[in-house]
Amino acid sequence: MRKEIEIRAFASSDAAAVRELFIRLNRLLAPAHMAEAFERYIVHSLAEEIDRIADYYASRNGGFWVAVVDDEIVGMFGLEASGAQAMELRRMYVAPGLRRRGIARKMLAFAEDECRRRNRRRLQLSTSELQKEALALYRNAGYRSIREEIADAASNKTVGGGIRRYHFTKQL
User: Fold this and answer.
1) Contact yes or no for 135/167 (Cβ under 8 A)
2) Which terminus of the chain is less hemmed in, N or C, by CB atoms within 10 Å?
């Protein structure tokens, strides 16, 4: 029997589960030679964004949502304004043991619908070469590649360290 996936707005009671999912997934993504860089990225992102999600996304005219199955947070994503007509998809993660069940597709469709509700007609996003499944999802969902870059500097959006990042956009 397929369990229902609920997508709902982030609540303060979700903070610990979102934090844990973020840390766990970024540690899983980290190539062995970049473990220290990923740990620095995690610490930076927690302080700047994850541990203050409500304030962070509100200050960027956006929002943050969680995907829930049987009262367990199994995914998450945020949106922030990126220009008058666009939003940027951020922090879209699905718990490793629950991938390939349509959770990411449902979250992406929800994000696109949220952009439309906000009269934003373009959704932008980026992901790294380390996230092959995400790259396939975005391409299959009609996102157009607009540029690639080698991210050297770390921020709350990238680990840096020479990882290739792919930037996409989709007209909604």
Assistant:
1) no
2) N
What is the per-residue pLDDT across 68-110, written as a single tens digit (0 to 9) for each? 999 999 999 999 999 889 999 999 999 988 888 889 999 999 9
CB neighbours of residue 66 within 10 Å: 21
Radius of gyration of the chain (CA): 15
| pTM for the full predicted model | 0.91
CA distance 53 to 59: 10
- The CATH number given to whatever domain includes residue 84 is 3.40.630.30
**Can you read off the two tokens belonging to residue 80?**
């922030």
Task: Report if residue 152 sits inside a domain.
Answer: no
Domain count, the chain: 1
